[in-house]
Amino acid sequence: MSEERNTSGSEGGERGDRKYFAKPKFCQFCADKTLTIDYKKIDLLRKYVTEEGSIRPRRQTGACARHQRAVAAAVKQARHVALLPFHGRSADDR
User: Given CA atoms 72, 44, 51, 64 in this order, what sign does their dihedral have?
Assistant: First the structure.
C-alpha cells in the first residue's frame, strides 16, 4: 500500500505524448448552404451510418443538432423506402 505512483510519464498517459490530434469538427451542411439533406441521396447518408447500420452520433460526424436530426430523419425514411438497410450490409453489397 505504500507504493508510489510513477509520475515521470514514461508509461504514457500524459497529454504531450499524443502523436495525432483531432481536427476541429464542423457541420458541413452549415458550411455549404447548397448541400441539402434528402433521403434519396444515399451516398451522402452512408457517411452518417456505420457498417452495422446504426446512425453515427454527433460527436463522430461533427454535424450540428439541427442537421443531425434531419440526417436521422432522412436515414429512417431511406430505410423505410428500402434504400438503406436496417441492419448490416445489404444483399447487393456482399
Answer: negative
Q: Which residue has the cell 497529454?
A: 15
Q: What is the CATH number of domain 26-93?
A: 4.10.640.10
Give the C-alpha separation, 69 to 17, whole Å. Answer: 37
Tens place of pLDDT per residue across the chain (94 aa): 566 665 655 555 566 666 777 777 889 999 999 999 999 999 999 999 999 999 999 999 999 999 999 999 999 999 999 999 998 765 555 5
55 phi and psi, to 5 degrees? Answer: -75, 135
- Give the start-to-end residue ranges of the domains of the chain: 26-93
What is the spatial distance between Cα 70 and Cα 51, in angstroms, rounded to a whole number?
20
Q: Kindly report the pTM of this predicted structure.
A: 0.70
